[in-house]
Design a protein that fits this description.
Helix 2 crosses helix 3 and helix 3 packs antiparallel against helix 4. 70% of the residues lie in helices and 5% in strands.
């Protein structure tokens, strides 16, 4: 459960000024992916990454047999792009940035060969 930095309770609290119940301001400022991790947990969202990656692989295989399947590839690629944020949130931006940089350098070397 998320601990609100405003009221020190959870995602839903009573706002002191208006006495209204709602989501805490710091919760509302989080990205959808951050809120999903808080709601459903790390294991479930990382499993979602694997599921979406598998769906993209399947869509690409269908595209190779039927080039008209572009929309499905785009749809699944969008899901994977959204889910990639879970990896960054769980394992760290710095680690991901470092690995992406390393992979891009390797790709550049392969292109130059």
């Amino acid at each position: 459960m998320h601990l609100c930095t405003t009221c020190r309770t959870n995602d839903i609290c009573v706002f002191p000024a208006s006495n209204e119940v709602g989501y805490c301001p710091d919760y509302q400022e989080k990205t959808p992916q951050e809120r999903a991790l808080l709601k459903w947990g790390t294991s479930r969202q990382l499993n979602k990454v694997a599921e979406e990656a598998a769906e993209l692989a399947a869509a690409l295989n269908r595209y190779f047999n039927d080039p008209a399947a572009v929309a499905e590839v785009i749809e699944e690629a969008a899901d994977v792009e959204i889910c990639a944020a879970y990896i960054r949130l769980v394992f760290g931006n710095e680690a991901m940035d470092k690995e992406v940089e390393r992979k891009l350098k390797r790709l550049e070397g392969m292109i130059k060969q």
